[in-house]
C-alpha cells in the first residue's frame, strides 16, 4: 500500500486508528507465536514481568495493574503456578490476600521469553533506524502511561 519513499499512498495510511490497529494486530500475532509455549501466552508473560521486580503484588493489585478481570487472572495464575513459574503465598499484612511471587524457574522463563519477544519486536520494527525505534517506543510508552493511569483512576471512582 505504500511506496518506496514510505509516504502514504492511501488515505488510511495516515489514519491513527487504522495504522495503530495494523501494527497491534501484527505484533499480537508475532508475540503470540514467540511465547506460545508459555502458560497464558503473552498474558502469562505480562504476569511474570509484573511480578519479577520488587515486592510481590497481591492478586487484586496485579489484576488492576494488568487490567484483567480477577477470575481471568486466577485462571492464568493457576496455569503459571502449575508450571512452577509463580507461587501464591499469604500476604503478611492481610492473611486473606495472596501475594504473587516469581520462582527461579519463572525468572529463567521470563528471560527466555523476553529474548523471543525482543526478536518479535525487531521483526515488527525492521527497516526503522535504532533512533526511530527508541523514539517510537518512548512516545508509545507516554501515551500508554497516560491512558493506563486514567483507566486506573476511573476504576477507583
Could you characterize the architecture of this molecule?
This protein is mainly α and 157 residues long. It has one domain: Winged helix-like DNA-binding domain superfamily/Winged helix DNA-binding domain (Arc Repressor Mutant, subunit A), CATH 1.10.10.10. Helix content is 62%, strand content 10%. A two-stranded antiparallel ribbon has the order 1-2. Strand 1 and strand 2 form a beta hairpin. The C terminus is likely disordered. One of its GO terms (molecular function) is DNA binding. Keywords: DNA-binding, Transcription, Transcription regulation. This is HTH marR-type domain-containing protein. InterPro entries: HTH_MarR-typ (IPR000835), MarR/SlyA-like (IPR039422), WH-like_DNA-bd_sf (IPR036388), WH_DNA-bd_sf (IPR036390).
Short description:
Pfam families: MarR_2 (PF12802). The protein has 157 residues and is mainly alpha-helical.
Query: How many individual domains?
Result: 1
Element string (H = helix, E = strand): HHHHEEHH
Unreliable sequence segments: 152-157
Strand percentage, roughly? Answer: 5-15%
CATH topology: Arc Repressor Mutant, subunit A
Radius of gyration from CA coordinates: 18 Å
Which SSEs are present, and which pair or pack?
Blueprint: H1 16-34, H2 41-50, H3 59-66, H4 70-82, E1 86-91, E2 94-102, H5 104-124, H6 130-156
Antiparallel strand pairs: 1-2
Helix pairs in contact: 1-5
Amino acid at each position: 500500500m505504500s511506496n518506496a519513499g514510505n509516504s502514504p499512498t492511501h488515505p488510511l495510511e495516515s489514519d491513527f486508528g487504522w495504522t495503530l490497529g495494523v501494527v497491534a494486530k501484527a505484533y499480537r500475532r508475532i508475540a503470540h507465536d514467540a511465547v506460545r509455549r508459555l502458560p497464558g501466552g503473552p498474558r502469562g508473560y505480562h504476569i511474570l514481568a509484573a511480578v519479577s521486580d520488587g515486592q510481590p503484588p497481591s492478586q487484586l493489585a496485579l489484576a488492576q495493574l494488568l487490567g484483567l478481570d480477577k477470575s481471568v487472572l486466577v485462571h492464568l495464575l493457576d496455569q503459571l503456578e502449575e508450571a512452577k513459574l509463580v507461587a501464591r503465598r499469604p500476604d503478611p499484612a492481610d492473611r486473606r490476600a495472596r501475594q504473587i511471587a516469581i520462582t527461579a524457574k519463572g525468572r529463567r522463563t521470563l528471560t527466555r521469553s523476553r529474548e523471543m519477544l525482543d526478536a518479535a519486536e525487531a521483526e515488527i520494527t525492521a527497516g526503522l533506524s535504532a533512533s526511530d525505534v527508541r523514539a517510537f517506543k518512548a512516545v508509545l510508552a507516554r501515551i500508554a502511561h497516560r491512558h493506563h493511569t486514567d483507566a486506573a483512576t476511573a476504576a477507583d471512582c
